[in-house]
Amino acid sequence: MLVEPLAEGHATELAKAFAALADPVRLRVFSMIAASGTCCSCDLIEPVGKSQPTISHHTKVLADAGLITGEKAGRWVNWTVVPARLDQLRAALAP
Amino acid sequence: MLVEPLAEGHATELAKAFAALADPVRLRVFSMIAASGTCCSCDLIEPVGKSQPTISHHTKVLADAGLITGEKAGRWVNWTVVPARLDQLRAALAP
DNA sequence: GCTACAGATCGACAGATGTCAATATCTTCG
DNA sequence: CGAAGATATTGACATCTGTCGATCTGTAGC
User: Fold this and answer.
1) Which terminus, N or C, of chain B has the lesser number of Cβ atoms within 10 Å?
2) pLDDT tens, position by position, for chain A (95 residues)?
């Protein structure tokens, strides 16, 4: 991205991913999922200090942006990061 | 960031930088500055297709986030990217 | 079936954000 | 000085976003 101007479509696509990381609460949620390898939403509520609907909202935003993916396991949802999406973002910031 | 949960302060700091990249127009402005090494605001208006105040607003947001820095040269402002800030973001996304 | 729990969805509301027209500021040049 | 050009600032507006309480949808275990 640092060698040639971004096309409009590509910029919109990238912006969505960055927008997903543009909130402190969401960054913390994301880092907790990344750090633990896998965790469910209920594990995030207390450490993050937000209500359950708010956490659910944030996981949805992160998932829609392709940064995490959730697998249902009984009553729980196991969230994990999507490494390929991260690579994409790092590449976009690379010189 | 992927090995341990982010502290609240650090998350807020990072979120500001990502928020600056969370808009397609701003991403394009940023990529054009990066690609050209240095350019002034007036060079951005036509290719980006936004009004002059809007471009000015976006450069200010990017500058406030520490992603670019502007040096006044007569009537112009020469914008350049801040590589250290970019490194910081890439590091935050590194496994 | 009933209860308890994980998670999603809905509705509402305050606050932030992107955009432009109008205007102001500052700098160069004649 | 006066005119012209590059940016910045202001004001206004529509839209988006983060948050919560209330409620709905599942699933597990009794």
Assistant:
1) C
2) 788 889 999 999 999 999 999 999 999 999 999 999 999 999 999 999 999 999 999 999 999 999 999 999 999 999 999 999 999 999 999 98
**B21 vs A15: CB contact, 8 Å cut-off?**
yes
- Cβ of B11 near strand C (under 7 Å)? The reply is no
pTM score over 0.90? yes
Contact indicator for B5, A32 with CB cutoff of 8 Å: yes
Name the percent of chain A in helix, strand, coil, to the closest 5. Answer: 60, 15, 25
Q: In degrees, to the nearest 5, what angle opens at C-alpha A21 toward C-alphas A43 and A5?
A: 160
CA distances from B62 to A59, A70, B18, B53, B81 (A): 27, 33, 10, 14, 9
Spatial CA neighbour of B18 closest among B94, B81, B88, B70: B88
